[in-house]
Amino acid sequence: MPRRKADAAAVVFALLVVATVAAFAYAQRVKRDPPVIDNFKIAGKSTNSFTPAGPCHRRIRLRFRTTTSNDATVEIIRPGGKVVRVLAEDTFLKRYSFHTYHWDGKNNAGVILPIGRYRMRVLLHDEGRELILPEAIHLRAKGSLPCGEGKSG
Fold first, then answer.
1. Is 118 in contact with 74 (CB distance < 8 Å)?
2. Model confidence pLDDT, tens digit, residues 106-140
3. What is the mean pLDDT of residues 14-39?
């Protein structure tokens, strides 16, 4: 019986070594692939904060470039991945083109969302991928920013 346990342990160890080498090779290949989305900018200014309510009726500009052509859905999400607004659904994103979307801080029902951090997510239908863009969008309280700041388009 001890011989069987030693053989089983050797087989498990060999499988783990093979899996580790395969994972390493895959990770190296993924690192060499160009990013699917690059040049992401929020508002084109130095701030990614804005106040959606108040006398300014602000909206924020979200701009990015894709390196592949794909049908996609562009959404605004809360931490945890809950969709709060769909900016574009089943839209064609052309390769090496800039894509610009505006968000007014409201959900799909037109209600202003609470103060907090939000992100933009791009679902690439043909590739079956979901990309959450790195920078967060910060919604601020009414009156916390003067009308000239954080405003776009």
1. no
2. 999 989 889 899 999 999 988 888 888 888 888 88
3. 83
CA distances in angstroms from 120 to 15, 23, 24, 106, 142, listed in the order given: 39, 29, 30, 14, 22
Is there a contact between 56 and 151 (Cβ–Cβ < 8 Å)?
yes
Task: Quote the pTM value.
Answer: 0.69
Q: What are phi and psi of 12, to 5 degrees?
A: -60, -45
Residue 133's identity, in one-letter code, is L
CA-nearest of 85, 81, 89 to 125 is 89
In whole angstroms, give the CA distance from residue 74 to residue 35: 17
CA distance linking residue 104 with residue 54, whole number of Å? 12
Local structure of residue 68 (DSSP, 8 states):
S
Q: CA-CA distance, 138 to 80, in Å (whole number)?
A: 16
What does the block give as tokens for 27? 């990770």
The label of the residue with tokens 């894509």 reads: 99
Q: What pLDDT score does 57 carry?
A: 61
